[in-house]
Amino acid sequence: MARVKVLEVSDLPLVKGVLVGVDGRDVALFRRGADILAIGNDCPHQGGSLCDGWAEGDIVICPLHGWEFDMRSGACMTVPGENVPRYMATVESGSVYLEEVE
User: Fold this and answer.
1) CA 77/CA 11 separation, integer angstroms
2) Torsions phi, psi of 37, nearest 5?
3) Distance between CA atoms of 53 and 62, rounded to whole angstroms?
4) Own/partner pairs for 13-16, CB < 8 Å, 24+ apart?
5) What is the CA 70 to chain-centroid distance, rounded?
6) Which of 4, 57, 63, 84 lies in the 20 to 30 Å Cα band around 76?
7) Cβ pair 93, 75 in contact under 8 A
8) Per-residue confidence of the chain (102 residues) as pLDDT tens digits?
9) pTM score, two decimals?
10) Beta-carbon-side half-sphere exposure of residue 22 (alpha carbons within 13 Å)
11) How many CA atoms lie within 13 A of 101 on its CB side?
């Protein structure tokens, strides 16, 4: 996946996630202090929207059944071996760009 501009930093709130689309995929963005973290939005358990979940530190909790995901790695903390895609976020001139990390 090529690097894609998804939004302006000013459109990313400090307290909740934001849903963006990248190459037809839903991605959840979170601002954690100076860092912007991005992971696939769909929980592998039953498709819960992670951008609607609760963020605690670097962990986001799925609002449907409480599965927890590390936003830095995409790894599920609840069920080992499960994960969601993760994306590298960079900021240039006030815009957020994403590219998928393999």
Assistant:
1) 29
2) -110, 140
3) 5
4) 16/51, 16/55
5) 9
6) 4
7) no
8) 688 999 999 999 887 899 999 989 999 999 988 899 999 999 999 989 999 999 999 999 999 999 999 999 999 999 999 999 999 999 999 999 999 887
9) 0.91
10) 28
11) 17
Distances from the Cα of 101 to the Cαs of 38, 49, 76, 88, in angstroms?
A: 10, 20, 16, 6
Give 15's contacts (C-beta < 8 A, 6+ positions apart).
Answer: none
Beta strand spans in 1-102 (E): 4-8, 18-22, 25-32, 35-40, 54-56, 59-61, 68-70, 86-92, 95-101
For 25, the token pair is: 């995929």
pLDDT of residue 63: 95
| Residue of 71, 69, 63, 64 lying closest to 88 (CA atoms) | 71
